[in-house]
Amino acid sequence: MKPSLMHLHRDLLLGNTSSVELTKQALHAIACHQQAGGAAFTQVNAKTALAVARQLDAARLYPTPLAGLPLVISDGFDVQGQVTCAGSVVLKSKPPASQDAAVVASLRTAGAVLLARANMSEFSYSSLGLNPHYGTPLNPGDPTRIAGGSSSGAAVSVALGMSAAALVSDSSGSARIPAAFCGLVGFKATAKQMPLQGCLSLSPSLDSVGMLARSVSCCSVLSAVLSGGWMPTHIRNSQPPGIKRCRLYVTEDYLAEQLDPEVAQAFDKALTRLSKAGARIIRFDFPELRQIAEMNAQGGQIAAEAWRWHHARQEEADCRHLDPRIAQLIRQGANQSAVDYQDLLEQRRTLQAVAAQRLSMADAWLMPTVAILPPTLAQLENDDAYTRLNRLVQRNSAVVNLLDGCAVSLPLSPQIGLSVCGLHGRDTHILKLAAGIEATLAQPEGE
After folding, report:
1. Is 345 part of a structural domain of the chain?
2. What is the CATH number of the domain that holds 173?
3. Which of 8, 40, 75, 424 could form an S-S bond across to 117 if both were Cys, CB 3.0 to 4.6 Å?
4. % of the chain residues with pLDDT over 70
């Protein structure tokens, strides 16, 4: 098992390793990955990363658990002096960013070593992680399958030890889907919990900051640093809580439909283990969620808001360089009127009110992160199958974005995830509870 951020931080403080050593190890892993034809990155900053690592080691100053650790950043965030392409070639000729995105600046201030820009679905607009421009990052456990999107490269980088953690965005599951498919922990914050300034937006009303890491504690550290709440006392208060008498809500309609047998079995097994550990599994109905399919019939809010940004570029000559599948998704927004969009906003508010009522007594809402195992590349060769699977892969995770909630995806197997979800603003609570669930599920069965 690869070490957590806190373990790496401790090793740096004790002198058991150095930032230069960790950075060289990560860069060596990246080089091997690229030599083998891997496509996890759009850009690698080897010289700059090593220079930062040397400065940190010379000062022997590691003020936060991120200091000196090699991290990667999704290609959708601004990094000063670099062009933000968001997995596309359309923006390659644009000027470099004049300043870091707000969360990138926070990582830099915290002392993180920014290794590379991670590959992704073009403009974040797919949950499958394919990219015809820079290559498609493949599932680390089965190269015939996808790694999930949109943050496919970021997930592969963490899963294969090319970075300690990754910063991504999440509009409908971009952090949690690849986490589930690649055996990682993924966290999606409440939308306003962390600033999105300097992130190339897909859907401003649904976008949020996300992260991929090896444990819930890693995500807690990243979340605290990025939201401006990191304190050294977090180290002393890092023990996961127990889950006895916790009220864990589960709905068997909509979110439990079309589950692969392996996913259903893993989810049910996890619920049984949590129940035996003293948690209260409370099953409830949420039939209003079925309205979401109709709400998304013309692309939903994402299409409307993506079209607002992209429509001018659709008229430019460079639009021919877009992935045709992504271009088709973007053009869905052209078919929506202002009335259609306002109706979507009203329906969203109604769903949020219903969720607040139904989940008012819940400590967390549990669901399979993704209904199915990672599709194979062969399954996605057909456009109709691509569209159908893209919708099914993001179905569960997108509900949390629509409700403006927060969620942690925990690995139940190398390709199956369990989501621990909460409503708006419950980020700290959900991270703590997810740590308790993570610890419970990590215990040998029978204990």
Report:
1. no
2. 3.90.1300.10
3. 75
4. 96
Q: What is the mean pLDDT of residues 173-190?
A: 98
The whole-angstrom separation of Cα 168 and Cα 146 is 18
| Domain total in the chain | 1
Give me the DSSP letters along 178-194.
Answer: HHHHTT-EEEE--TTTS
Structural domain for 95, as ranges: 5-236
Where are any strands of DSSP class E within 133-279?
165-170, 185-188, 208-213, 247-251
- The tokens for 405 are 């909630």
Pairing of strands 41-44, 280-284: unpaired
pLDDT band at 317 (very low <50, low <70, confident <90, very high): very low
pLDDT classification of 444: cutoffs 50, 70, 90: confident
Asked whether residue 62 is domain-assigned, the answer is yes
Flag whether 276 is in a domain.
Answer: no
Q: At which residue do the structure tokens 């409370």 appear?
A: 282
Task: Tell me the sheet residues that pair with 301.
Answer: none
Supply the DSSP symbol for 4: P
SS3 370: coil
What are the structure tokens assigned to 172, written together? 């409908």
| Amino acid identity, position 204 | P
